[in-house]
Specification:
This protein is mostly helical and about 100 residues long. It has 5 helices and 2 strands; from the N terminus they run ααβαβαα.
Length: about 100
């Protein structure tokens, strides 16, 4: 019985709190971001409990649609953002997002 209790206690942190242990494969959302960019859609997903509304307004001024999502960062949307940010920085210049954050 003692061994069962020890095994349960050791295994609990692995399954508690809904941790998601996936292998990182190329995400399908990268293709969606590529398609959106080619169509002229500039969209970024904004995560966090209290999103920076000034930053969101600055994105809108630059023609980028900010989509506020909340605290949970799904891997597919993170991948979408990474691809879209690279594409937008290629278009507007490296460091574009840092300059926007500093300018607010």
């Amino acid at each position: 019985m003692k061994k069962l209790l020890i095994i349960t206690v050791l295994a609990l942190p692995t399954f508690a709190f809904g941790q998601d242990f996936k292998f990182h494969l190329p995400c399908s959302e990268s293709k969606e971001a590529e398609r959106d960019f080619k169509k002229g859609i500039r969209r970024l997903y904004i995560f966090g409990l209290a999103p920076d509304l000034q930053y969101c307004a600055a994105l809108k001024k630059e023609g980028i649609e900010p989509v506020i999502q909340g605290c949970v960062v799904p891997s597919d949307l993170e991948c979408y953002n990474n691809v879209m940010q690279r594409k937008i920085e290629g278009e507007k210049g490296i460091g574009f997002f840092n300059k926007l954050k500093l300018a607010k």
